[in-house]
Amino acid sequence: MRLTLPLLLLLGLFAFCKMPSKKTSLQPSTETFKTKTDTKMPDLPIAGDYPAAWQEIDSLEREGLFKSALEKTEALYARASNDNNAGQILKSLIFKGKFLTMLEENGIEKAMKLYETELLRMRQPEKSVLQSMLAELYSTYLQNQGWRISNRTQLADAPGPDITTWSAANFEQRALDLYQASVKEESALRNGPINYIKDIILPGSTDTTAVPLRPTLFDFLAYRALQHFESERSYLNQPAFKFELSQEAAFAPAKTFLLEKFESQDENASKWMAIRLFQRLLSAQSGNAGQTAGYIDADLARLNFVRQNSVLEDKELRYEQALESLHKQYYDHPSDAEIVWQLSNYLWQKDVQQPGEKTHRKRALTLCEDAIKRHPNTFGAKRCAQLVEILKTPSFSILTEMAYVPEKPVLFRVAWQNMSKIYVKLVQLPGFDE
Known about the structure:
This protein is mostly helical and 434 residues long. The protein contains 16 helices and two strands. A two-stranded antiparallel ribbon has the order 1-2.
């Protein structure tokens, strides 16, 4: 069984933060983890009697007593700090921000200021997690308030602490900086199990092996940063030397891809940040037999990103060839079903874009049915089954021209799937000449 990407509760707590994702759930552990330099990291948090405290806070919130809920949350934060319980510290901070937005007109701005203040005194690995949370808060705030913020003039000097004077570019730059900072302490984060923040992650779909796809804090935070780096935004000025993904090695097998040097004159190019972070992710899981599922998942994500952003004219062919290579390499691994789904979905769409072609669709069906037999009950097999149902469903459509030339033949395009016969009846409407 494989556990998928975790999701911070932050996304559901603020009124304007709504963004689904995957997550993981693991049993508590009392082990400690260390950096490669043997610097002792904090012990994993213990459960304690926090659930009772949160039940009381939840009850107050449901009754609309937000001020009382905030006071209880602040008391819980002080207790968690005294217990050195990282998960509860972060969770209480999330709820403090939530209640501030409910109680005060400028509560969201105060929540951001609160998190910025906490960053100054917080240690690792909590600091990296809070940096990621705050980065998302800035980004989501900009998305929801962009219509108002975009009218602000960008100042030549660095922005001050008052975010009500920030331009859209200031918000975007701060989010980029925080996401980058959240994955900077890679060595320590790689040795930090995802268990460490179990109090602020939600369970998600499972598949393949007992090892989670995002087993460490670095994996977790890296994928959160990638979600931001991959998105298209235009708040920052685009320099003349804009980064373009033009290297053929971007589509190469992972081992070759890891050796490529992707350089950019624009240090704020989010696509450049993303491709380099994919290299770090794959490097972290490379050669670890127990992380094969996560390695494959990261490589598939990398290929999707490259396909969408490469400027190579033959990128579609290179993408297909890369998936074929992965399918051959991991044929016997349960995650091959996901490779097959991705390849089959590509082949199917290829036929959709080329009316009259059926060869790719037939191969997609064969690949999916084979993967379902070889790797039953896996996440990939379930996705393949959904695609098989689509490919086998009868369908029929007629496309006509918007305008017709008098006394000229009227052209129709008829498309069908999984149908052996089509009956068409033409009926003359009253009032129209033959």
